[in-house]
């Protein structure tokens, strides 16, 4: 007897893409994606987390039939990506990083057009429904250029969902939104889980991946460095992290090493990974005092996905983003 | 396929008419040309009447709208490339060539509307043209417009930058216009220009247009112009559809 396998809406194996750009300095090749495997179950919110330039958008664009992978295969909603791209497109809602909302015309016109292109039986009704669902009815007949960033992003998602696809791609959906609009959009993405729509979401925000995703992969330099649920990934690194600023960080690191699962020094910031922060903290303070190490600041946090990223790549996500 | 092409044409047309001021501006320009430029030509025209000048200038004005109106329509495509809507349509089940063809068809509809307006004004000013010639003239204009519009879409998808696009267009439009005898007939030009002119496809269209307005539909310039523009339009249309494929993978 076989165990029931959850239905996979995306199965990708060994996706690769190399870009060649020609300039006066000669041809330059960038290996944007270097062998990515993905398994996304029906109805789950799946995250692709990584710094800018990690290959997130290239991966999503390959899966959306926009660019042809150099190598690898994928099946999306039961259709082969390379042999049946038209069938894949029918199963997809796609919201690119740019959003895809035209300024010159109204939200209603754009949603209606998408409904018609998908050949819906009653495009007007589907349009009215999705506009109402995203609280856009009042704004739907204004030219889209008069909408705020958050409103426009809602229009973008509404366009992607008008045909009720089983799978929605969201490429960095909250970049550039203020905290309130981000929270609002998060809530709407969570609601998709209830309606059974699967989501493939790329982001470089840790809190976003943590708050939304059922499972995620962390990508860096075109490869997956970690995969799991947010909780699993964080547990894998360690329970808690104590961040210290001390006078002699190297000596402090050596002193604290026996108390920790791992220590990590970035410039003058010392991170000490421990299983139980509350219990370790007094012991750690006593050890520093015995060694006469001056302490400037100390903080105790649950480990975050940034710690996972740090553990896997040796860099923090923030640094990686700044370098890209 | 045809359903999608029609869908995109309707969508683009509605977009054009959602702000009716802009298409109106587009319509006014050729009329102003007729009202203010044709009289200037009077002294240079054999016969020397306004009607003679108009018979020479109206076909040129119509072709000018066709070429220069449509050549700039690719800018809209660059905007949609940037805001991501083009990419979004490419991921939809839409038949991909329809995305470009819809825009080209929209340009053709706008061109016919403008042409009708120009003809009404020319008629009011005393120009008369036969039905066969009229139909041929409109078809010639459509072929020219199809060429210019699809060239513009292809160029937009290739250049992908407003600045580059306007520089490229400027480089081509002036010689294209002067070497076609659009404003002043090429018969007035020095011999080296008359020698070069036949290399300019637009020259043949203008010659054919003038023959039509002079009631000579059997003039050899007419089949030449149709041959040239049907071939060019077919080439640029295919090119623009290929350029889209490059964007969309």
Can you give a write-up of this model?
The complex is a heterodimer of chains A (324) and B (249). Chain A has 12 helices and 14 strands. Chain A has 324 residues and is of the alpha/beta class. Chain A has 2 domains: 227 residues, Rossmann fold (3-Layer(aba) Sandwich); 64 residues, 2-Layer Sandwich (Alpha-Beta Plaits). A 6-stranded mixed β-sheet of chain A has the order 6-7-8-3-9-10, sandwiched between helices. In chain A, β4 and β5 form a beta hairpin. In chain A, α3 crosses α4, α3 packs parallel to α5 and α8 crosses α11. The longest helix of chain A has 16 residues. Chain B has one domain. In chain B, α2 packs antiparallel against α3. Chain B is globular and about 60 Å long. The two termini of chain B are 19 Å apart. Classes of the chains: A alpha/beta (324), B mainly alpha (249). At the A-B interface, α2, β6 and α3 of A face α1, α4 and α5 of B.
Q: Helix-strand pattern of chain B, N to C?
A: HHHHHHHHHHH
State the name of the first-level CATH class of the largest domain in chain A.
Answer: Alpha Beta
Mean pLDDT of chain B: 89
* Largest interface by Cβ-Cβ < 8 Å: A-B, 34 and 23 residues
Number of beta-strand segments of chain A: 14
CATH superfamily membership of the largest domain in chain A, which one?
P-loop containing nucleotide triphosphate hydrolases
- The geometry of chain A reads as elongated
In the CATH scheme, what's the topology name of the largest domain in chain A? Rossmann fold
Helical content class of chain A: 25-40%
